[in-house]
Design brief:
The chain has one domain: 3-Layer(aba) Sandwich (Rossmann fold). Helices cover 35% and strands 13% of the residues. It has helices at 33-50, 68-80, 98-109, 134-142, 155-168; strands at residues 25-30, 54-56, 85-90, 113-118, 146-148. The protein has a 5-stranded parallel β-sheet with strand order 2-1-3-4-5, sandwiched between helices. Strand 4 (113-118), helix 4 (134-142) and strand 5 (146-148) form a beta-alpha-beta unit. Helix 2 packs across helix 3 (98-109). The protein is globular and about 65 Å long.
């Protein structure tokens, strides 16, 4: 056994050496509130509260204002700005929601990581592809955002997906965020 040259130094760390654990990430979760609320609740309860995989930075309740610019600014500055990654829960109609588009745009503005996860029960189209918000799609195509079509089956799997998305987000020049923000929800 070879000893480190500083083993006699009283300040040299003792005990078994462990590789550092990745930091618990601050996550903002974007989703279709009317259709996918139960999946959001399950996702955050399971992975944030029960398994402590991430710290949830999502809204606790709606921003109380009719001024959409104000709502957008509060979400961007108070919630997305304090996170390191946005996870988009992609249900059947998530791609139609303007607030999801705005949240993705704000995530890209801050150059944070972006991960799309398909909600269980969501069916692919005839080409076998899932409908995702266009801004997310553009960033998946550019290589900036990550996307998984299977709901994570374990905390370890979700941690890997988050870390993979964070690795992709190091390539800032791949960000595609020139699209005009959606003005209204699509029918």
């Amino acid at each position: 056994m070879t000893l480190h040259p500083d083993w006699r130094n009283p300040y040299f760390p003792r005990g078994p050496f462990r590789s550092p654990q990745p930091a618990k990430r601050k996550v903002f979760v974007s989703y279709h509130h009317e259709r996918d609320q139960s999946w959001f609740d399950y996702f955050t309860n399971q992975f944030s509260e029960t398994f402590d995989v991430f710290q949830d930075q999502s809204l606790d309740e709606e921003v109380d204002s009719e001024d959409l610019d104000y709502v957008n600014r509060v979400i961007r500055e108070d919630y997305i700005g304090g996170s390191s990654i946005t996870i988009v829960l992609c249900g059947a109609e998530t791609w139609k929601r303007r607030f999801v588009d705005w949240e993705i745009a704000s995530t890209l503005h801050y150059e944070h990581a972006l991960l799309g996860i398909v909600v269980p029960g969501t069916m692919p189209n005839v080409d076998g592809k899932f409908a995702v918000p266009m801004r997310l799609h553009e960033n998946i195509q550019s290589g900036y955002a990550a996307f998984v079509s299977q709901w994570p089956s374990s905390p370890t799997e979700l941690k890997g997906q988050i870390e993979g998305a964070l690795s992709k987000s190091l390539l800032k020049f791949h960000i595609e965020n020139d699209r005009v923000k959606m003005r209204r929800n699509l029918p």
